[in-house]
Design brief:
This is Transporter substrate-binding domain-containing protein. Keywords: Signal. Belongs to the bacterial solute-binding protein 3 family. InterPro entries: Solute-binding_3/MltF_N (IPR001638). This protein folds into two domains: 136 residues, Periplasmic binding protein-like II (D-Maltodextrin-Binding Protein, domain 2); 97 residues, Periplasmic binding protein-like II (D-Maltodextrin-Binding Protein, domain 2). The N and C termini lie far apart (51 Å). The protein contains eight helices and eleven strands. The protein is α/β, with parallel strands linked by helices and 249 residues long. It is 37% helix and 20% strand. It has a five-stranded mixed beta sheet with strand order 7-6-8-5-9, covered by helices on one side.
Length: 249
């Protein structure tokens, strides 16, 4: 009887993990981008390297960030990528981050304004993206001045729209990850037209983060924790990052 029970538990365990892991996030290349592109983003390649080795298929699609957080928080999808812990403090995170991000203020070329303090933003029209965490202090300041100095863009292509609004003069400042902004202006063919106006945040850890409603989330993150040292030691992590022109953290 004990042997039969052990076999049954083994089969159940195998069936539990032999499934599909759903990952959703907005386009935030080079962390994650077009799912149909040979380079869908280094975080997606990392996820595939980890989970597909365990027989778990990765189903990655783009989704507006606020909706992705909502769907994961509701248990309708499994994970998001490119998350700060401030984005989703209730989610399940791995022990080690998947890279460090820095956010800068950006303005159109020729604009002499440079960031000095938050109060200086009150005379600006700042474009932000709904659902993003920019740091607790800044998030609170922006929320208190929403509609005055700060405008939020949501939905698909939010960064593209904010860059177009900036270049059209409808807003005069945006806040974005340095790596993401550089990749996006190159994609849009507007290099040199958008310039940094100062740093908002120092290096901030980014993660894959999974649904607090999914009982498998803890197990998924244990897989990540076990796999990352291996991917570092065997050169897989370096190879993935190098293909995106990034340095290992």
């Amino acid at each position: 009887m004990n042997r039969i029970l052990a076999i049954a538990l083994l089969v159940l365990s195998m069936s539990t993990w032999s499934q599909t892991l759903t990952i959703r996030a907005d386009d935030w290349f080079p962390m994650n981008g077009n799912p149909n592109d040979p380079q869908p983003g280094y975080m997606i390649e990392l996820a595939k390297a980890i989970f597909e080795a365990e027989g778990i298929e990765v189903d990655y699609q783009l989704m507006p960030w606020e909706r992705a957080l909502h769907e994961a928080r509701s248990g309708n999808i499994d994970c998001v990528v490119g998350a700060y812990k401030e984005d989703a403090p209730d989610f399940v995170f791995p022990q080690a981050h998947w890279g460090l991000d820095r956010a800068h203020f950006y303005v159109a070329k020729g604009d002499s304004w440079r960031f000095s303090d938050f109060n200086g933003l009150l005379s600006r029209k700042v474009g932000l993206i709904g659902g993003y965490a920019y740091g607790d202090e800044f998030d609170a300041f922006a929320a208190n001045n929403k509609g005055a100095a700060f405008q939020y863009m949501s939905g698909d292509g939010a960064l593209d729209k904010n860059i177009k609004k900036l270049l059209a003069g409808r807003i005069d400042t945006i806040v974005e990850s340095v790596a993401v902004l550089e990749a996006k202006v190159k994609e849009m063919g507007v290099q040199g037209q958008v310039v940094s106006a100062g740093e908002l945040t120092k290096a901030t850890p980014m993660y894959i983060a999974c649904s607090p409603e999914n009982p498998l989330s803890v197990g998924y993150m244990k897989m990540v924790d076990a796999a990352m040292p291996v991917l570092k030691s065997n050169g897989t992590l370096d190879k993935i990052l190098d293909s995106y022109g990034l340095q290992p953290w």
